[in-house]
Amino acid sequence: MNKEDFESVEGYFNDWVDLPYREQNSKLNQLRESGELTTEHINLLVDLLASDSQDDMPEDVYELAFDLNADFAQETLNENSQLGNYRLLKLLGLGGMGFVYLAERNDGTFDKQVAIKFSKVHFKKSLIKRFENERQILAKLTHPNIAQLLDGGTDEQERPYIVMEYVSGQPINQFCAQKKLNIKGRLDLILQVCSAVAFAHQNLVLHRDLK
After folding, report:
1. Fewer beta carbons below 10 Å: N end or C end of the chain?
2. Any catalytic annotation for residue 52?
3. Element (H or E) spanning 117, and its range?
4. Residue ranges covered by each domain of the chain
């Protein structure tokens, strides 16, 4: 799988990602019958449509998407790039609609590391709108178990971004295994997760991408 494979299905992904599942499935069946794409490319498209984040993606799809996002990010962004009061330090990973950098505040006011999530500017308007909606949702969620929105805006490339609290940690399952937590310890962590989810539900926010 290479960059050309990804580019061959990206247009379909951008056009279909916001459609209901049944309509996506219908269009995929039509695409199979048309013979416009190879079976490999259709399978790649299925994986992308089913993936809300990197954790959902098959490893080879994630690696390709990460490389493409990294290439795209570094066209205009790289380590030591400045965004307002923040200096970018390194690329952390990719989300469903863009990429995330570790950054630090460097205006001399105070020291703080943050995570800055950027949207890919060549996404269609509906996906940019989804990214902006995510930013607005985070703005109204203040909870100790939810990463806090700190700032947001649009950069010189007209790319929306979100400045968020940076949480240095690891996936909950890896943490449990490393610390060799017993059942009670694991349940205590799950209760913290449930508290955050319940708070989101109370604010009429449904999270579709829990891991």
Report:
1. C
2. no
3. strand 113-119
4. 3-70, 77-165, 172-202
